[in-house]
UniProtKB/TrEMBL annotation:
Name of this chain's protein: PLP-dependent aminotransferase family protein
InterPro entries found in the cross-reference section: Aminotransferase_I/II_large, HTH_trans_reg/aminotransferase, PyrdxlP-dep_Trfase, PyrdxlP-dep_Trfase_major, PyrdxlP-dep_Trfase_small, Tscrpt_reg_HTH_GntR, WH-like_DNA-bd_sf, WH_DNA-bd_sf
Pfam families: Aminotran_1_2 (PF00155), GntR (PF00392)
Record PANTHER family: HTH-TYPE TRANSCRIPTIONAL REGULATORY PROTEIN GABR
Keyword Oxidoreductase belongs to the record: no
Similarity comment text for this entry: In the C-terminal section; belongs to the class-I pyridoxal-phosphate-dependent aminotransferase family.
Segments forming domain HTH gntR-type: 13-81
Listed GO MF terms: transaminase activity
Keywords: Aminotransferase, DNA-binding, Pyridoxal phosphate, Transcription, Transcription regulation, Transferase
Organism: Skermanella cutis
Amino acid sequence: MTTWLPDLDSYPGPRYRAIADALAADIAAGRLAVGERLPTHRDLAYHLKVTVGTITRAYAEAERRGLIGGEVGRGTYVKAGTVRSAGDEWPQLPPPPGDTPAVVDLSLCTPSAAGVAEALAALLSGMKDPAGFADMLNYPPHGGLPAHREAGSRWLTRHRISAGPETVLVTSGAQNGMAIAFTTITRPGDLILTERLTYFGMKALTATLGLRLDGLSMDDDGLLPDAFEAACRQSAPKALYTVPTLHNPTTAIMPTERRRRIIEIARKYDVTIVEDDVFGFLVPDGPPPIQVLAPDITLHISSLSKSIAPGLRIGYLVAPPRLMPRLEATMRALNYAVPPLMGELATRWIEDGSADRFAETQCRECRARHALAAEILRDGPAVAVPSVGQHLWLKLPDPWRREDFVAETRSRGIILTGADVFMVGRGAAPHAVRVGLSMPARREDVRHGLEVIADLLCSPAGATVSMV
């Protein structure tokens, strides 16, 4: 057995990958001969001061590249054949000057932009008739041009929302829709209920509007009905804000019967439900939206930001007919109307089928990236909640604390969002992080980020930073 001991200083990135890269270099340089037996997992781990799990992953990566092979009882050997680098399958991120790996930002849920820019250029190049721009240069109706509301209605219907054009308000994205909804149905000082972990844009909005926000207990299926009813009985809330499908950040999908129970409680205590459904298109066979089950008490918010592109800034707010005049008045006060040109782009994509193709691209990409996460995190100690959404909810194992994990991954060039960002109220946030799988443009970058995370979880040297 060889006493092979690699120098890892020249190989940035996760330790297991550095070991595999060093092994490839030594084979290529002739420092390791074909058939030579490598150190045992335990011996190499001891000499390199890493965990046995890191060596196991390093040898598995080297075997995947065709560098080595092993047999039970005989150990691990250098294989014959052409050496393949990791870059043959997954291009590596180029490291910046020094030993710090390249930055991979996994902090947001930004959809894939594959093909969208090209489609936009083609669409704009075909809009050459000046007469077609006449309606886009005048003051539009506050709720949007009739054709744009009609297109929004058709788009929502494809995603199982019951909405005629007269109940659809075109908004500048979901955040604008939320602002219009809560400005209309609440007054400063009113109490709004939500899940104890909620979208941080909602926290910012309620603070701006002078609303009180209270978080309710939840489990793996989302908001707990008993907690909702107890809060209604004690505090007389004005509205409930919920993300029942692919909850942000936990990815929970609320079952149908629980949705019905939430509706029953809301009716009993006269609470308006504001349903944020921006991720709903990713679960076409999921439970029915709350708006379908209770259209008379629900304001439904969706957007094309997650299905097409966030820069489009087009969303749709569906509301009971009785609220539409007040919502349009709020729109007039806040931003008058959505720029008609952006509404026209969205409308044409909905009409020609491009929007459906973009949405399906997002679905396929999410499935591929979650499969990648399942592969890389499969044998680790953390619990990755299964999902098909644009983010991953990662429950950290002991002794990791979320703030230490976020700091440690950041020091290695990987940016995550800790659970405390989403916490409502004074309770302790869970030790978990949100991983924005959809944000990097390339899957290779996602793989790099996940491998750094997996390596760190298996070697928790920084887990005790906050323990004194």
